[in-house]
């Protein structure tokens, strides 16, 4: 029962280190290579704890004579 209240998640981004930002611009007079720093490999561990189990209200049982009628009486207002 206690283990159902905890959840542990592990996330690792860029595991293979393939997130590179390289750009090449070619013009009539020059070739320009631009290397930009990007977010490298990182990991994240998430711990989640469920605070409580809120009880759902039990549905009220309707009397047979109330079946199909809207709540609130449904009388005429003239």
Major sheet characteristics: 2 strands, antiparallel
Assembly state: single chain
By secondary-structure content and strand pairing, the structural class works out as: mainly beta
Give the helices and strands as they follow along the chain: EEEE
Reading side by side through the largest sheet, how are the strands ordered? 1-4
User: In terms of per-residue confidence, which ranges show pLDDT below 50 for 5 or more consecutive residues?
Assistant: none
Q: What is the overall number of helices?
A: 0
Distance between the termini: 58 Å
Please tag this protein with its features.
elongated, 0% helix, two-stranded antiparallel sheet, mainly beta
Task: Please outline what is shown here.
By secondary structure, the protein is mostly beta strands.
What does this structure look like?
The chain has 78 residues and is mainly beta. It has a domain at 3-52. The chain is 0% helix and 36% strand. It is built from no helices and 4 strands. It has strands at residues 6-13, 21-26, 31-36, 42-49. The protein has a two-stranded antiparallel ribbon with strand order 1-4. A hairpin with a 4-residue loop joins strand 2 and strand 3 (31-36).
